Amino acid sequence: MNILYINHYAGNPYYGMEFRPYYLAKEWLKNGHKTAILASSFSHVRSKQPNVKNTIKEEKIDGIQYIWYPTNKYKENGILRLINIFSFLLQIILSNKKIINKIKPDIIIASSTYPLDIWVAKYLAKKHKAKLIFEIHDLWPLSPIELGGMSPKHPFMVLCQYAENSAYNYSDAVISILPKVHQHVIEHGLDINKLHIIPNGIVCSDWENGNYDKIPNDISSKIQLLKSKGYTIVGYSGSHGVPNALEFLIEAANLLREKPFHFILVGSGLEKNNLIEYSRSLNLENITFFDPITKKQIPDLLALFDISYMGAHKTPIYRFGISFNKLMDYMMAENVILSSIEAGNDPITEAACGLTVEAESSKAIAEGLIKLSEYTLEERQQMGKNGRNYVLNHHTYSMLANKFLQVMKKL
Fold first, then answer.
1. What confidence score (pLDDT) does residue 209 get?
2. Domain that residue 60 falls in
3. Structure confidence by residue, pLDDT tens digits, 352-410
């Protein structure tokens, strides 16, 4: 099959997030199926942007055909991001004869987080007599409404809602990363028989010795020094943004300032400077911030954590479940995990690899960390093994790509 994957923010290990299209396409290629990924030249989630000027650029990456559409830069949500979105979608339509015709797609996947790409995908599917799949990442417009505080009456939100409803009506199949969307999609017109749950995953080879890089010496030496003094290392790696609710972790560090815990936060984000200032205002000496590292350094970093943390604000949007890449990484690293997230699913408890506590509660986080630190070494090692086995049994990209492929073959 020839698969056309429309994902505005698609990346790969060389450019950064998001990785899902790349890993799925690599697995499909092993099975003899070619994938062309259509993506914007600029994405706020990538660490590096492709070298594209003012023309559409085709690039072959590990056997996968990437087609980059030149779009403008933006920093935050606003008019520049809207221009970026609509420019990307319009260029795909205009490039149909020159580029898409050469691909001759059998399957078209609309997967750009926002649902507006469904109309472009529908147009191309009709032109090329291809089957159409809509892939749900975040639920738009619900996510920007519930997480970002946007009004459901905002014209862009109204447009997104119309697009979401159209996606459920037009698509031959719907793939959801989120595990608990069933009632929502039914209410918006989807025949539930078209729905398939295929979460995020990991690539086993990324975690094999020799396939990952060492972390910077300043991080490793700091952690090793703390460990030699008997500290329990509580680690966080990832975005430092509002949704990550890291202020509650800092407050937990304040509550534990007399206990042998040290908090290591690695990453970047819009809230990082505010979080650093907050920790300074509390005169905390048990927390250290480091710059972000590369994806290939993540296994080396996580191997040094005693407990890994993930959190989020209380928000109704998580009733549809979570499937965070960060969680898969923690599990593969055999980390004991403390989760401060209230969601429709609880993979930590399901996998028996840590503890889930109340969201937005520094007291609950502090108490949870103490409880986990009091387990014996053998008990914590077993939790780590439980998490890794859970991922290997449910979340490898070879397994997920095959499940996705079976959906395509039945259309």
1. 82
2. 2-201+396-409
3. 999 999 999 999 999 999 999 999 999 999 999 999 999 999 999 999 999 999 999 99
Same domain, 149 and 225: no
Same domain, 226 and 298: yes
Count of Cβ atoms closer than 10 Å to residue 334 Cβ: 21
Which residue in 29, 11, 10 sits closest to 397, CA to CA? 29
What would the DSSP string read from start to end of 258-316? TSSEEEEEE---TTHHHHHHHHHHTT-SSEEEE----GGGHHHHHTT-SEEEEE----G
| Whole-number Å distance between alpha carbons of 197 and 108 | 18
Query: Same domain, yes or no, for 221 and 355?
Result: yes
Joined tokens for residue 308: 């890994």
- 127/124 Cα distance (integer angstroms): 5
d(CA 52, CA 64): 18
Q: Is 375 left (phi over 0), alpha (psi -120 to 50) or beta?
A: beta
Answer yes or no: do 182 and 268 share one domain.
no
State CA 153 to chain mean position distance. Answer: 28
Residue 304 one-letter amino acid: L
Q: At CA 169, angle to CA 167 and CA 175, rounded to 5?
A: 50
Supply the DSSP symbol for 234: E
CATH at residue 256: 3.40.50.2000
For the entire predicted model, the pTM comes to 0.88
Instruction: Indicate whether 264 and 382 sit together in one domain.
Output: yes
Residues 6 or more apart from 154 whose CB is under 8 A from it?
Answer: none
For 144-220, list the strands marked E by DSSP.
Answer: 173-176, 195-197
50 plus 91 within the same structural domain: yes
Neighbours of 138 (CB within 10 A): 15
CA–CA distances in Å: residue 284 to residues 175, 236, 248 = 45, 17, 14
